[in-house]
Amino acid sequence: MAKTNSGNFFEDYSIGQVIEHAVPRTVGEGERALYHALYPARHALYSSDMFAADSGLEGSPIDDLAAFHVVFGKTVPDVSLNAVANLGYAEGRWLRPVYPGDTLRSVSEVIGLKQNSNGKTGVVWVRTRGLNQMEEVVLEYVRWVMVRKRDLDAPAPETVVPELKGVIPADELVIPEGLDFSTYDFSLAGEPHRWGDYEVGEQIDHVDGVTIEEAEHMIATRLWQNTAKVHFDATFRPDGQRLIYGGHIISMARALSFNGLANAQMIVGLNGGAHANPCFSGLTVKAWSEVLDKAETSAPGVGAVRLRLVATSGGDAFTLKGEDGKYLPHVLLDLDYWALMPL
After folding, report:
1. How many CB atoms within 10 Å of residue 148?
2. DSSP state of 298
3. What is the CA angle 77-80-84, rounded to 5?
4. What's the mean per-residue pLDDT of the chain?
5. pTM of the predicted model, to two decimals?
6. Contact 195, 44 (CB under 8 A)
C-alpha cells in the first residue's frame, strides 16, 4: 500500500463529498510578523492592539487575508495539488476575527463538477469553511479549480454547476461583535478619507508598485503550506518557471491599496475573483481600485464599501478588458470584495 499522497485527480471527486483537511494550525504573533514582512501591510486595526481595542475589539486580529491563506493552504493537498489553475472565488464571508492563539482547520464540500471538452481536465467547485478551536466557523468561501485527470478513459461525471451569488448582499455581511468606529482616530490610521468621501464609480490609482521576488513568493508558499506543484516545483512546468501563488498577488494588491484606502479596514466579504493572467518573478505589481457600492451597517460609525481591486503588471491604469471581453494581458487579478470603513 502506497504511503505517499499523490493528490486527488478529477475522477476522485463526487458531489457531496466532504473532505476534512489536515493539519490544524495554531496562529501566533509570528504569523502577523511574517505577513507584514512579506507585504507592505499597514492597516491600523491589524497593527495595533490599542487601535483595535479603541475600535471595540479585544485586540488586534490576524490580518483577514492571512487567516484566509491559512485556511486555503490546508485545502491544497486535497483540492488543488494536481490543479492546472485556480479559476475563481465566490460567496466568501469572514464570520469572526482570528486572534493570535487561535487554532484553525479547514473542511471542504464538493458542490460542483464539470469535465472539460478535451477530456483531460475538469472543473471542481468546493465550499470551504475554516473553523477555530471552539468549532466556530471563522470564514467560508467557494472556489473552483481546473484539475487534471489521472485516467483519461475514466467516464465523465454528471455535470453539476452550482448557482452562486454574484454579490453578497450587504445585509448578509457579518460585522464583528463590538466593532465601533464612532471614535475612530484618522490621524493614527494614516488617511482622513471616510466612507462619505467615496463615491460609487470612483477609481483610485494606488500609485506604488512592488517587484515580485522568487524568494518572497517561496516563503509565502511555505508559510501557508501551499504545496501545489505549479507554485512549488520548478520542474513541473515546461518553461521551468514557478507560477506565483495567487494569494501572494491578492495580499500584495491589498497592501498596495493602503495608499488611497487606508481606512478600508476589515475585509468581510469576497464577492468574486479571478486570477486573470499568470504572474512570474520579476514582474512589478501595481494596483487600482473602483468603488462599486456602499452600504450602512448596524454597527456604530461603521459603513461597508464594495471595492474592485485590480492588480496589474503594467499597462494603463483603469483598463481591464479588451473589446473581445477578455482580460488584457497586463491584468493579473480582478477581485470584488466588501470592506468596513468609518462613516
Report:
1. 17
2. S
3. 145
4. 95
5. 0.95
6. no
